[in-house]
Specification:
Blueprint: H1 2-15, E1 21-26, E2 40-43, E3 48-51, E4 57-63
Length: 64
């Protein structure tokens, strides 16, 4: 989860200077190499939260 938070924070900082877009990704269990369902990610600075689906996929739409 820490890797996701770091990647999202870096992407959010870069996105501030750009037009709005979306941020998509996948969360996988490092030990078993399987997708993690119902994991929550957030972009703290923007107050956005996203939860992964059954395949571990998440999307933050309309990221400034």
């Amino acid at each position: 989860m820490l890797r996701v938070a770091v990647a999202v924070a870096v992407a959010a900082a870069f996105a501030r200077a750009q037009q709005p877009g979306s941020l998509r990704g996948v969360v996988r269990d490092q030990d078993f190499d399987v997708p993690l369902a119902a994991a929550t990610g957030q972009i703290v600075e923007l107050g956005l939260r996203a939860e992964t689906n059954d395949q571990g996929l998440f999307t933050f739409p309309q990221v400034p």
